[in-house]
Predict the 3D structure of the following.
Amino acid sequence: MEKILAKNKLDDWVAALSDWQVSAPIMEDDIWSYKASKGKVQLEHSNTVQPPKGFSFPQREVFFSFEQIKGQPPRLTPIQPKAARHAVFGVRPCDGAGAVRMDTVFNDQFQDNYYQARRSNVAYVGLACNKPQGINCFCQSVGGSPVSSQGMDVLMTDLGDRYYVAAVTETGKALMTAGGKVFGEPSADDKKKLKQTHADALAQPQRAINNVDAVPAKLKASFDSPLWEELARACIGCGACTFLCPTCHCFDINDENTSSSPLRGNRVRTWDNCQFPDFTMHTSGHNPRENQGARLRQRVNHKFQYFHENFGMSQCTGCGRCITECSVGVDIVNVVNKVTEHVG
Amino acid sequence: MINLQDMRDTARNMLAKNEVRGVIGYRRSTNGMLAEPVVITKPEQADELIWDPTCFHNLSLYLVEDRKFLAHTRAKADLPIAIIAKGCDARSTVVLMQENYFERKDVYIIGVSCEGTGVLDERKLVKKGIRATNSAFDGDDFVFTTEQGEQRIPAREVMADRCLECRECFPKEHNIVLGEDKTGRQLDAPFTALKRFEELDPAARWEFWDHQFERCIRCFACRSVCPMCYCDECIVDSTSFPVTGQTTADEKANRVKWIERSATRAENMTYHMTRVLHLAGRCIDCNECERVCPVNIPLRLLNNKMEREAREQFGYEPGASIGGPSLTASFLDTDPGKFIR
Amino acid sequence: MTKKRTGVFVCHCGNNIAATVDVKKVAEAMSNEENVVASEDYVYMCSDPGQNAVLQSIKDNKLDSVVISCCSPNLHEKTFRDNAKRAGLNSFTCEIANIREQCAWVHKDKAVATEKAIKISRSAVRRAGRDQALEPIAVPVTRKVLVIGGGIAGIQAALDIANAGLKVILVEKLATIGGHMLQLSETFPTLDCSQCILSPKMVDVSRHENIELMTYSEVQEVNGSVGNFQVKIKQKPSYVDPELCKICDDCAAVCPVVVPNEHDLGLTARRAIHIPFAQAIPASYTLDENACLGLNPVRCGKCKDACDVGAINYDMLPKTVTEEVGAIVVATGYDLYAQEHMNELGGGQIDDVLDGLQFERLCSASGATKGHVLRPSDRTVPKDVVFIQCVGSRDPANHCAYCSKICCMYTAKHASLYKHHVPDGRAYVFYIDIRSGGKGYEEFVQRIMEEDEAIYLRGRVSKLYRKDGKVRVLGTDTLTGQNVEIDADMVVLALAMEPSKGTADIAKTLKIGRDKDGFLAEAHPKLKPVESVTAGIFLAGCAQGPKDIPETVSQASAAAAKVIGLLSQPTLSHAPTVAKVRNSHCTGCEMCVTACPYNAISLENGKALVNEVLCEGCGSCSATCVRSAIEVKNTTGLQIQEMIEACLA
Amino acid sequence: MSEQQAEVTTDYEPRIVAFLCKWCSSAGSDLAGVSRIQYPSNATPITVPCTGSISPNYILSALKKGADGVLVSGCHIGDCHYIEGNFLARRKIHLVKELLGFVGIEQDRFRMSWVSAAEGAKYSQVIKDFVEDLRPLGPQTKVKAGRS
């Protein structure tokens, strides 16, 4: 299903999605973030600081609550995520690609019900990038494209005063069907303009990872490279890069007690972060990744080598957030290029 | 004006003469026009050093990293390490020495005066819609290179808030210093932003902070970038835990959890409030925490509040003296006590 | 940590607790606590059967910790800890939940009081859940005592302690011991000669083999704690060797410098080289370096030349000694409130207006006028003398709020002495009321009124001024309601007593507190009147508050008894609830070192190190440490956190 | 992640955690008991050695665990059993109080008082006043952790 939507009709479409909670990027506190749309959606954003991954993988997920009364067996109360259908507008192709990777992780071998319960209720209405969103975009280096519909349910392309709207999945079709008459049919001219816009978008210069196909092997060969520590010398060990990454999915599970006698509390999953020192720390105090260099290597190798070995694709989708938001200039493109350039 | 060549020559000479084992400074990053911290150890690297309005980082953090690295590797440094330090960086270096984190002789401070222009607040530039590929100091202006050519902007329009209110842009504590002492050239009165905020009534203030604490994602960038947050284990929500041969199983099992990992408002709030209280009298307003916050939580207001209380109620100026007592470890008979019933 | 086995014992305290708190319900609620394996209630937990029940339960249930929910820990914490110890438990794993004073006695509603008692008890259970077994710290003691102040209080204390076989160092700021008592003419109510009763004691001090006398000396620094103080004492040079000095007065005879004599409160003069008074101990001259022309033979050197025995040495240097002592008695005495403060009474500017001590010197046979009462301005015999009581005392708005206690008595004595010297003179006494509680005191005052015919006028004096060679006294007699005007030849002010100059400094040096009036604070107003708040430091005499000689002597002997008791044991036991450093977390920032009021923390290899003997366990360090690298044992952050939870559950 | 506002109940009783120093305020509260001076039961005391030992974390923790008010009470200035612990506390607590007010938490939720061992009546008055001042504020939800 492919349609045309006049820009001034966008709000009408949103209004028609009465069964859905609609979120879209809004500018608040000087940053773009996904927020409930309140009826108005304006897709003039550069990419959001936080990717939309939280819709299906929130920073905090309560698995169950527990209670242990003295002399009685423990009582567990499972908690399931509330199921509300959620349409997220303005998702950029890198983040769509991110969703594909997250889906892969949480459904491989074991299906994560908490993730799935949320994910199955989320629809991504993407927006192609006619121009790179920032100076650190490099989606084309990691098998993506600024106009890709990967991971999307609908892909919109800005054609000036109108959007070219294409359904990607059945959910996407349903979303568009709900809009009904707000859409027009695309003319041949529209189709031509779409093609041209996409071609132009692909031709926009981006940052590049050199010889990307050889990267996994070269990284594998560089595990013991002294460069890791050198490149991480400025790293302050915060978690901004991974918390903002559309594909980082590591988590921690803790019991958060609300009472110690009787023992009561919740078992909670929270995002974890390979850049934190205690991420791989053993009880003994031994830490196999004992310095920031090893932690940087983990982040980069996971994206560019291990994920490749496991799933045949780069985990990194080239959104550039980890570069832009790094306060001390740690740059994943630079790191990959530097480390691999010395390997034969 | 700071002569970059002087800075490079100083670094080069000291490294060549083996007077220091490294120089902590700035170089060009691969992220657009921004500078990034670097530690150079060879004389030939001196030409990598730069000095421009994007040199906003407080490099004293890397003195902390350096000491941690030495402690971790059990290495003994026989030479000092040099640091390029702005007024604020020098003050935080003083606090670190006040707290014995290292000794004065271990550090060679190459002071750089901000000469009253301060450094750039990148967000203000973005707000102005300027995409630049280079930036430079020029008198009271910053000069940016953009696609449209050179763009000259009065520094005060895009300068970091802390620089607007800076009382001491000249690094008093130094071994050598580059640039002129233009102390007193502050553009806004100290605590201007704070005063503006305090005009809000309590309900409005709560609404504001409620919203801010709700947004925190607890990436700990604020803590990680702070030179004063050098604790091996943060008492509120640690992402590290020093284990030694003497650490008992009991200590490992029974750590005080003042907050939980969940990034909910109450937890976030407790984290930030504790941090602010622990920085009282130690924070010297480099405002790195606010700069690095990916979601723009205005942390400076909180730290400023404590700074002003310390100054006005206790006559305490953080980073003023290496030998003086710490704010919360000392008291005066004249400390205010009217609030006590 | 393996889980604790805690027993909870809830006391009814007869009906004291049980009337407002449902004790059964408290015991039942506690039995639901995770660590609690036994929870009982009993009518009187502190009684023998009650204690035995606890004892039995500890054994039967293999308890490792107990909580007694009862009265304030100030009353029975020791009882129950000792009891727990009898059962083989470590006494520091016994906690008290105060459900009487802090709950049952202050609330009426049984439901809410019970609920609060549960919270308090639960909180104690949590604390006990993480209590460590601790052993008291044994501290060896130094069997030597420092007495500060060589007045009657210090002398008495030093003699008592020395007689018990302990070594004493007696430190006196001035060149002689004796203090204010030595300035007195006669003492009330018996009118025996002050010098005559004091001098033998002073000689005893100087000859006592256990007393080391350090005059002209001040305590500069005190470190350490009970049993082991390190004191630094600085002795000023007297420039005269007391061993050689023959007190022949040849030196003073040639000394060209004349200054007021402090011993006579300025009523006489002395030379720069002088002996404070004839019977001074040590019996030696002292060269006042502030008055001397320069301690230099080129400038003067007359005294040195005059001294046949070569006792004078201009090159004598100050001497600082460090001594170890086990206990300290502070007897730094009083000073009179300065006349300068009394603007309404001339502010010290009117001739022939004297303070009480000056009058003593006028009456004293060894004094300014060789025992003849002559007024200072013209050396005539005063015929009308006005004595004014409560000068500066009992005046919270302008001067001292307190009663100086001895003025009623010594004014009566003054009036009497005056009348004995000048039988035809008239003695007027202005008073607010007469406080004469003491053995023979009331009779004494009555005798002065009736037999010596002193004229007592109830009222205050509003103004003094000089007129026609007399002092015009304007006052009121509140009994007749009439204004009174007296043209007096002399006026004597019974000025308030205040802590001696330097009391604030010595309090700071010793790290002991002062009360609101600046006197040294006793640890408890009733039960610990001679102890300071710091263990091992005791108080004697007027430094602690105004008192007369018998009372001063009693307190000095009491302090001595305390010291003797303290040092009669070979070791002292110090509470083990002291701060402990987590080395892995300490960065050596020194904040705790700065915050510690006891100098108990130092840096050792870049880490804080607690001197457990000095540490009092106040926890100032732990609240200051941003890293939680230092905590007080059995009051840890974890315990407090769990107690908070228990209070809010 | 928003938290539910605690429902306003009609029979609201403020819950207070009262940190009392062992030597003065705890003894003062004992005296109130001995004198049988009645006061509201809302405050549960936790005895600590000295106000100087009270870490700001204790205060934040109490609020986070749902205390409607927190009281810190110790010896009058100059009377500290540990000489200067209350001086250190006065400075630290000032900062805590200012910070709480700054972020918009009602200033009346947190209180410090000096109550000597002789001031049983004052202790009861401090509690009475605190409870009365807390009542109109309703339950404290701002710092309280609201978990599902």
